């Protein structure tokens, strides 16, 4: 099957049961998305699917015909620089998923999509709520929040 990943059409021979995460890591050599829980609970595998953030461990690759996938390897966004400026990571395992999720979240905010917090502006509480599907075992959240807020201002 053909997958469009980071703007490039790639042909892969996959078992129909292969998840997007396994296709990316094992068949395409894109190891940025991490296999954390393999159950969609931690967000370490977050990528952008047609611009929307998804847990790649929960999606079968075979369902993606005609879709475009962006992994951390294909992201070019101010949030990356802000994560570095604010030391928004410690071990770095969750960082690719956090950054992909932040990029998708900022797009959702720009489109006016509501959240459970419901703040009209991007407050710390709003960022925490919108990023709640991405876990960091090191606890680098205090540095991620200002990084995301500053990236949103750019």
Automatic annotation (TrEMBL):
InterPro entries: 2Fe-2S-bd (IPR002888), 2Fe-2S-bd_dom_sf (IPR036884), 2Fe-2S_ferredoxin-like_sf (IPR036010), 2Fe-2S_ferredoxin-type (IPR001041), 2Fe2S_fd_BS (IPR006058), Aldehyde_Oxdr_Iron-Sulfur (IPR052914), Beta-grasp_dom_sf (IPR012675)
Signal peptide range: none
Record keywords, A-Z: Iron, Metal-binding, Oxidoreductase
Domain 2Fe-2S ferredoxin-type, first and last residues per copy: 1-75
Gene3D superfamilies: 3.10.20.30, [2Fe-2S]-binding domain
Protein name: 2Fe-2S iron-sulfur cluster-binding protein
Source lineage: Bacteria, Bacillati, Actinomycetota, Actinomycetes, Micromonosporales
């Amino acid at each position: 099957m053909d997958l469009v990943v980071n703007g490039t059409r790639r042909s892969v021979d996959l078992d129909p049961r292969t998840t997007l995460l396994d296709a990316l890591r094992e068949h395409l050599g894109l190891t940025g998305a991490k296999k954390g829980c393999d159950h969609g609970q931690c967000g370490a595998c977050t990528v952008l699917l047609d611009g929307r953030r998804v847990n790649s461990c929960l999606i079968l690759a075979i369902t993606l015909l005609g879709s475009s996938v962006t992994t951390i390897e294909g992201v070019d966004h101010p949030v990356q620089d802000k994560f570095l400026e604010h030391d928004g990571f410690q071990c770095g395992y969750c960082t690719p998923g956090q950054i992909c999720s932040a990029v998708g979240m900022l797009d959702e905010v720009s489109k006016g999509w509501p959240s459970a917090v419901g703040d009209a502006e991007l407050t710390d509480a709003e960022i925490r709520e919108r990023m709640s599907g991405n876990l960091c075992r090191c606890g680098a959240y205090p540095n991620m929040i200002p990084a995301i807020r500053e990236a949103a201002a750019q």
